[in-house]
Write a structure and sequence with these properties.
mainly beta, signal, 7% helix, 51% strand, single chain, four-stranded mixed beta sheet, 683 residues, disordered N terminus
Length: 683
């Protein structure tokens, strides 16, 4: 891409972030003899992404995922009085020096046909990226008293272990989804028995701007989301391409805009009761999707999808009025999804353990109409999850198991197709779900396909503590899936052709030294998955290995003197995935940190990978990535400077691309080369 002048804009934005006016004091007065308290938090992120060296003519997206700057700001205000709490969060995204089809380098690529599909693909890819956005992201008013909680606005919610319903914040993956509506939770004790209930409903509210890609999610519009970004101008793709009509006259094509998210609605609740010895609960959630399938098909049948006005051909009129998405996820193919079930929890088994069991059923109804007007077939599934722990002296044992059949996460109604939705879709938001079934896996495992849709699996872990400073542990997992190899196995066909068998095992140690000021936590493991019968559709050739990995992870801290410590964190992996790659590769990272407790940390990182294609055209050798950073944390808030600079994180350098996972939720991050400054202010 062409070079761009960075320094003036970056300095201006940094100054704006660091010189924000101070907010009001914590206590602002009294009302009816009760104090009124104001809490203000502002998180400002300013970054610039240089060329990340991943340009590939086959993927237009890789030409516009770097060389841009952004200022992401989240301004959060909490006003508290008596039993009431009012919360407002304003999100802002401002972009500078962004990619454009007018850039000299992109013009050269277009002229020489070095980018797949040329100018139209690049224009469409930029249509929903790098749009300045300012909106009231989260609003809520809550009333709390003993035994009663009422919330109007945005709130997080989870029923059981997440099988039925779960929306929460995952900062590591840039996910923050809430329900905007109302929630009432009540509880009361009758002697040794405690009863409780929760009822909530509303529309789902995912974040509208993705910090990693600069992509904006456009809703269809709802009274609950006033001030939110809409679908954009219908001329976003004006002059996207030209062709000649039957008389040879040039005709410009304009494709009308459409949203990438149709607001989902939910109604859910929980009834629970029990004693200190056993608790029972019933959970239920119903998800309702907005749909224009019938109207869209009727519009197409009437021939109203395009109209020519002079030398301009306007297309996509039906999708503009009645937006519909391409869907291959069964949960998105149905407009009504019902999850319901119950759980039993035993907090203490004779003082030496605990037990939790949850059983959930799922019904997918009101199937979406296909191009012929035929609705998708109804589907039903179920899930059983159990976890138990036993403790005795220095030994503890944990067991976890799951048995899922045609059980799908509640996927958001988002146009996540990277091909058919190009120009209007939001594939980066494809991982937004409203439920989170437990995985019974180590939290960092990267799932392939959709293994949890149809699976029977279990995992056990044994810990032995020699003393307060020395412990060892080991685990063993067995996973048999019929949807890992074939993610489209919605009906859970358990034939050998769909089956994969995985073993996951490892061991580690947890050591502490110098009265806890130093520690060494090191563990190693193996993940090996085979197909039940040889498979011939892999790049790596015919065989029965589906995936294989060995790894070592560590977190080591050595106290030096006084407030100074040295820390090493790393992860090193040897991987093989013949579905996509011919041979093994290795990848990993090591981060070294010098800590000056409790305020300052300096970090230096090295990452690497030998994966084929880590840079375009590279088939062997290593790609290396180097970075450094500083972290500052204030210890108190007595001065204005300490309030403004509560937390400061600075990153400079490179990171390799790849999946990052948190408890089974994963997203792909492209390679990064740039500078990022995060400032958190608390008043």
């Amino acid at each position: 891409m062409s070079s761009r002048t960075l320094a003036p804009a970056l300095c201006l934005l940094l100054a704006g972030a660091l010189m924000a006016p101070p907010a009001a004091a914590v206590e602002v007065g009294t009302l009816d003899g009760k104090p009124v308290t104001l809490d203000v938090t502002n998180t400002a992120v300013v970054d610039y992404r240089f060329d990340n060296r991943n340009d590939d003519p086959r993927y237009p997206t890789r030409y516009v995922d770097d060389e841009f700057g952004e200022w992401i700001d989240r301004f959060n205000v909490q006003l508290l009085w008596w039993r009431f709490q009012l919360g407002v969060r304003i999100d802002a995204a401002t972009y500078f020096i962004v990619p454009s089809v007018g850039d000299a380098e992109l013009q050269r690529l277009i002229a020489t046909n070095e980018v797949a599909f040329g100018r139209p693909a690049l224009l469409r890819e930029l249509n929903t990226r790098f749009l300045n956005t300012y909106y009231p992201a989260k609003l809520n008013l809550a009333y709390n008293q003993p035994g009663l909680e009422v919330t109007v606005g945005d709130f997080y919610a989870q029923l059981g272990r997440g099988l039925v319903f779960s929306v929460r914040k995952l900062d590591e993956l840039a996910i923050d989804t809430t329900v905007r509506g109302g929630k009432v939770a009540a509880s009361r004790e009758f002697g040794p028995v405690r009863l409780g209930s929760t009822l909530f409903g509303g529309q789902m509210n995912p974040l509208r701007v993705d910090e990693v890609s600069g992509r904006r999610l456009h809703g269809d519009g709802s009274p609950l989301f006033f001030g939110f970004p809409g679908r954009g101008s219908v001329n976003d793709l004006e002059n996207v391409e030209a062709y000649a009509d039957s008389q040879g006259n040039p005709v410009n094509v304009t494709q009308l805009g459409r949203p990438s998210y149709l607001e989902d609605s939910v109604l859910g609740g929980r009834l629970e009761g029990g004693t200190e010895h056993v608790q029972l609960a019933l959970n239920g959630a119903m998800l309702f999707r907005k749909s224009y399938a019938r109207e869209y098909l009727d519009c197409i049948a009437r021939g109203e999808d395009e109209i020519q006005s002079g030398s301009v051909l306007i297309t996509g009129r039906c999708a503009n009025q009645y937006p519909e998405f391409t869907r291959n996820n069964p949960a998105r193919l149905h407009d009504a999804v019902r999850n319901f079930g119950g759980s039993i929890s035993v907090p203490s088994l004779g003082g030496h353990g605990d037990l939790y069991v949850e059983v959930v059923g799922q019904q997918l109804r009101d199937g979406r109409l296909d191009s012929t007007g035929t609705p998708a077939e109804d589907l039903s599934g179920y899930a059983v999850y159990a976890a138990a722990n036993a403790r005795g002296g220095p030994l503890s044992v944990s067991l976890e198991g799951k048995h899922y059949r045609s059980f799908f996460p509640l996927a958001a109604n988002i146009d996540a197709d990277p091909v058919s939705g190009i120009g209007f879709g939001a594939p980066e938001f494809s991982l937004v779900n409203y439920s989170q079934p437990p995985t019974a896996e180590p939290i960092y495992i990267e799932p392939i396909g959709a293994p949890n849709v149809c699976i029977t699996a279990g995992r056990s872990r044994v810990d032995y503590r020699f003393d307060r400073e020395t412990a060892v542990y080991a685990w063993l997992g067995r996973y048999i899936s019929w949807s890992e190899l074939n993610p489209e196995n919605a009906t859970c066909d358990t034939s050998k052709g769909n089956q994969t068998n995985a073993w996951d095992y490892g061991a580690g140690t947890d050591l502490e030294f110098e009265r806890g000021r130093s520690h060494a936590r090191v563990w190693a493991g193996v993940r090996h998955t085979e197909t039940a019968q040889p498979y011939s559709g892999f790049v790596g050739g015919e065989g029965d290995i589906f995936y294989s990995e060995t790894y070592v992870r560590y977190d080591i801290v050595k106290h030096l003197t006084g407030p100074f410590s040295l820390q090493f964190q790393g992860n090193h992996r040897r991987r093989y995935r013949p579905e996509n790659f011919v041979s093994w590769w290795i990848e990993g990272e090591n981060y070294t940190a010098l800590q000056w407790a409790p305020n300052l940390v300096g970090i230096f990182g090295v990452e690497y990978t030998s994966q084929e294609g880590c840079e375009p055209g590279r088939t062997e050798g290593f790609c290396h990535y180097f970075n450094g950073g500083l972290q500052w944390k204030s210890t108190n808030h007595e001065t204005l400077a300490e309030q403004i600079f509560d937390t400061v994180n600075l990153f400079v350098g490179q990171r390799r691309g790849g999946l990052r996972c948190v408890s089974g939720v994963c997203r792909f991050f492209p390679p990064l080369e740039g500078v990022r400054l995060e400032l958190v202010s608390r008043f």
